[in-house]
């Protein structure tokens, strides 16, 4: 009986000690996002951590109406999904293709990174969900689409 009580006490203590670690996995850990915009990035709205990586912009040589570019989101909450448990997600890099003839933006994939600005160790999800949006006039993505098409589509 004493052994049973000792075993239950040990299990209870170990379960309680693992709770914060388990909660951090589920809910993530708060991150201090960068205050200054890195060189080569354009912030899409004043109070967001959503950026266009200007060094990633290129026009398809076969179809000059297609403009490829990446957006980067610096995360407020990080998760420890990498094999190295000292690393956590700090940013998401998304590849997009803008069709200047139809004004449709296709999101082709996302990658999670261990550092801000879409850098560091990369984690690639097994499935990429491709989807299309038609940015509304006056919206942030609508403005990005207009500026890119005006500057890169000829």
TrEMBL record:
Question: Per its UniProt record, what Gene3D superfamilies does this chain match?
Answer: Surface-adhesin protein E
Quote the Pfam families the UniProt record gives: Adhesin_E
| Ranges where the Surface-adhesin protein E-like domain occurs | 45-150
PROSITE patterns tied to this protein? PROKAR_LIPOPROTEIN
Instruction: Classify the source by domain of life.
Output: Bacteria
Name this protein carries in UniProt: Surface-adhesin protein E
Taxonomic path? Bacteria, Pseudomonadati, Pseudomonadota, Gammaproteobacteria, Pasteurellales
């Amino acid at each position: 009986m004493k052994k049973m009580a000792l075993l239950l006490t040990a299990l209870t203590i170990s379960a309680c000690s693992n709770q914060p670690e388990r909660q951090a996995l589920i809910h993530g850990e708060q991150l201090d996002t960068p205050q200054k915009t890195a060189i080569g990035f354009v912030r899409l709205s004043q109070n967001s951590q959503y950026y266009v990586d200007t060094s990633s912009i290129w026009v398809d040589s076969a179809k000059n109406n297609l403009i490829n570019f990446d957006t980067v989101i610096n995360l407020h909450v990080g998760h420890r999904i990498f094999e190295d448990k000292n690393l956590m997600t700090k940013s998401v890099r998304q590849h997009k293709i803008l069709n200047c003839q139809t004004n449709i933006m296709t999101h082709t994939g996302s990658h999670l990174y261990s550092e801000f600005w879409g850098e560091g160790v990369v984690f690639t999800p097994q499935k990429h969900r491709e989807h299309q949006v038609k940015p509304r006039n006056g919206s942030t993505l609508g403005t990005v689409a207009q500026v890119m098409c005006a500057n890169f589509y000829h």
